[in-house]
Amino acid sequence: MEKKILCGCHNVTLDDVKAQIELGVRKFKELQDITNIGTDCPPCTEQNEKIFNDLLLNTGN
Question: What is the pTM of this model?
Fold first, then answer.
């Protein structure tokens, strides 16, 4: 099965984001510092920040 890419510029997948949340990342800026997700493309940033926040809410954190 192919992994869902959220950020093509930096090859960040949905699984990568989920893993960072499991490791304790609670702020999108922190996720960007670790993975570079959405650091080169404003539309990508907005979309992926929403995905991150939705995943964070679903984990109860």
Answer: 0.90
